[in-house]
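[step 3/7] fold_predict: job queued, chain A
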Amino acid sequence: MSTDSSESQDPGLLTRAYRTVTPGYRSRPDTEMHAVGLAYVAILLILLVPLLPFVLIIWAVTKLLSYLASLPGSEEE
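[step 4/7] structure written:
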């Protein structure tokens, strides 16, 4: 096989610069998404803070029942 010198000088598919019809992307801060995120956190806090006492009561009852179940003599055979 003979190698052609023009093939070795071909830059290849990945090294060529491609032209596009779409404009280039210029980064900018997303202040709208920041506001959406803050609103989402505020809504979650408004909804979940009133439920916090119930969650704490359920957690405390679960811990108490777990403690009572681990006491000696509470196991059934």
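[step 5/7] annotate
The mean pLDDT is 80.
The chain has three helices and no strands.
exit 0
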